[in-house]
Design brief:
- Helix 1 runs parallel beside helix 4.
- The chain has 7 helices and 7 strands.
- The chain is globular and about 55 Å long.
- Strands 1, 2, 3, 4, 5, 6 and 7 form a 7-stranded mixed β-sheet that branches.
- The relative contact order is 0.11.
- About 40% of the residues lie in helices and about 30% in strands.
- Strand 3 and strand 4 form a beta hairpin.
Length: about 210
């Protein structure tokens, strides 16, 4: 008798929780759940506890953060790309690596796929050891939010010079995933940079 009363009380609790959550979670409505299963299982302890937990989960929906102000985000990311260009021109691999996350992933024309910040710094150091960046410009064209991350798509234009060679103008396209670090500063998490095959390499006039 006590067991039956306890189960009945739990079922009643499940119904109350489900009713409270019904507006934000239609599946939590008691009739939506209980009508789908046999009566003997609806009175079982396992189902009753599952219904209570389900109701609680629905009764407390996760609050979404408001989307960021894209105009502010674009300005902040313009600063990041300016730092990126300055570091490239200065030939500073450490400064470039600091603009990436620890789990950075880089795909760029002429380079092997790079995974992780340490590997990225090593590759950038090798590149800068043989090539000078005379100019570097990143031009984002599209910025979109994706949860707590930002996606950017655009173009870049670099003027590169190898030792003893004339400077070359390289134009390309990029896609990047950016996220904030623990200090709320933006960092590059994923970057794909591909030379634009529709724009031939050209020698920069001296």
């Amino acid at each position: 008798m006590e067991r039956a009363e306890a189960l009945a009380a739990l079922v009643s609790t499940a119904r109350l929780i489900g009713s409270a959550a019904a507006e934000t979670c239609p599946l939590a409505r008691p009739e939506s759940v209980l009508s789908l299963i046999p009566e003997w299982y609806a009175m079982s302890r396992g189902f009753t506890f599952a219904t209570v937990l389900f109701g609680l989960a629905c009764a407390s929906p996760r609050q979404e953060s408001p989307p960021p102000d894209l105009s502010v985000v674009r300005t902040e990311l313009d600063t990041l790309w300016a730092q990126y260009s300055a570091a490239a021109i200065a030939g500073d691999p450490d400064a470039i690596a600091r603009l990436y996350t620890d789990s950075a992933y880089l795909v760029e024309s002429g380079l092997p796929t790079v995974r992780g910040n340490a590997a990225l710094r090593s590759v950038v150091k090798d590149v800068l050891g043989g090539v000078r960046f005379l100019e570097s410009n990143v031009r984002p064209e599209l910025t979109e939010t994706a949860g707590d991350r930002v996606l950017q798509f655009g173009t870049y234009r670099d003027v590169l010079q190898q030792s003893g060679q004339p400077a070359q103008v390289v134009v390309g396209r990029f896609a990047a995933v950016l996220q904030r670090d623990s200090t709320a500063s933006w960092r590059v998490s994923r970057l794909i940079a591909v030379a634009d095959s529709t724009v031939p390499l050209s020698v920069k006039p001296s």
